[in-house]
Each structure stands twice: as C-alpha cells, then as structure tokens.
Design brief:
49% strand, disordered N terminus
Amino acid sequence: NKHICPHSYFLHLYETVQDNQKPTVKHIVRLSCRTQSKSVRQKGGLTMKKTIRLCIIGIILGIILVIAGYIVLRATGGYTSDIISYEEVLPDDKEIHSIYISAYHTDFNVKQGDTYRLTAENVSDNTALHLTEKNGVLNIDTEKKVTKSFPPTDINFSTSNFSFCFNNSTCGEYTLYLPKKVYDEFTCDTAFADIDINDLSCEKAGIDTSFSSVSFSNFDVTKSIDADCSFGECNLNMSNSTFEKLDIDTSFGEFNLNNAEISKSCSIDSSFGETSLNLYGENYKLSKDNCFGEINISGNTSSNGNVEIDSSNSFGEINITIK
C-alpha cells in the first residue's frame, strides 16, 4: 500500500514476531488504516489553523474599517466648510527647540527655510492647521476640533467639499519651512495624510501614522526613533545616521529604514505588518519570537553582539540586511 511507510511496516512486523504472532494481511491492513488516519488528522489540523487565522484577520479588519470611516467623518470630510489659502510666519524672537505636527486628511510638506513659516493652499476652514509656539515647542495643529456626536446628523454628502482625500483639490496642501538646526524632538502624528519631510535633523523622532504615508529624505537622528504604523507606510531614508535606539510597532503597516547604524538597541513588534531595515555596522545580535510570521536576516550577526535586535512577529514579515 502506498500509504505505508516501510520503516513503520517492518517495525510492526518486528513487534508481531516478538509477540509470537504470524504476520498476516490483517496486520498490514490495520497498519495502513492507522497511517491514513494520521494523515487525515494532520491535514485537518492545518486546515483548522488556517481557518482560525483568516477569521481573526477578518474580524480585526472589519473593526478597523468601521473606526476608520468614523475618523474620516469626524476629521474633515463629512462636514461642509469653506476652502481657504493663507500663510503664517512665527516672529523672529521665538526660540524653537522642538517640533510637533498633527496633520489629518491633507498633504503636508516640510522643507528648509530662513524662518518658521507655514503656507496653506486650498484647505478646509473646518480643520485648518495653524502655527503656534509654547515653551519653545513649535505646534502645527488645528484650532477647531470636530466634536459632533456619532453618528453625525448634519453631513451633506452632495456638497462639492466632501471627500475622502482622493484628490489634492479637496485635501489641500501645507508646507512648513524650518531653519536648519538640530532640534531636540520632532513629533509627527498623522491620519489619512501624505507627509513628505526633507533635510531634517533632530535628537529624538516620534512618528505615529494611521492610514497615511510618511516619507523622510536626508533624515538625521542622534538618539532615538519611535515609530507606530497602523495601516500606514513610513519610509526613512537616513543620511548615514548613527543613533542609539529604534522602536517599531507595525500593525497592518509598513516601515522601511535605510542607511543607518544603531548603537544600543532595536525593538520590532510586528502584528500583521511589514518591517525592512537596511543597516550598517557590527556587533548586532538577533533575538526573535516568531508565531506565524516570517523573519529574514542577511549579513553578519553575533551571539556576543552588543546591539540586540529584539523582534516579535505574529503574522507579519521582518527583513533585516546588515552591510
């Protein structure tokens, strides 16, 4: 029988002889049935595991999509407003050491400039962002908060101003100009936005993105990066930076970091997300906790390394390249 393992067959015959029994066709048939039964149980277990995994993913996706729809309605899209353009400049006597940006449902750019200046083009008056300063922190946030109850009762879906930010004419665009210096902290909190940041230097960076795309070019950090990507995409193209600590949490999100060296520690928590690190340097060691995901590493690592990459992966994918 093709289902019978030869090793198991001879072992069964050996046990039969030990019991002073004569091998018969009955023994062979019984062995064949056992083997087939075990094969069916194994296939059933794999099928059940896949089914449970798909059910969990489906439930989580459903909940998150409901929450996402609610956020869109509350943020800007669901309420009628005027479309405006303006410019704001911070007085020269203000000393800035940290930057905080809260951007929702828009396109946002950060560039180098001579003064702290914010320009806005075709943005919604309902949640227009403004430039303020407090205790040396430059804040870019909205002064008007949508506090209407859920479900909203005064949404006009027929208005030309309603949008899920699929085109720039209704999302609007902001550009923030920053003088060149090394800032203490840079924090970016975004939802349903496209963020493009160029030529920025800071000691600490915090990135929290939901349903957004955040891209850094020529980015320089000296101490730490803390990134949380939920259904978002975060791309960090570093300027050959060496910094101490990297913490990443990707839930259905994507995080990519290029051209950097970590000197102390790295922590990666990937639920259903994807993380890609292109690092240079030595003394890295990998500690991994992998459930149903995939962890790939190429390059030199050592069990005696001083920089530990602690990776926890449920259903995601982690790729690390060390040059």
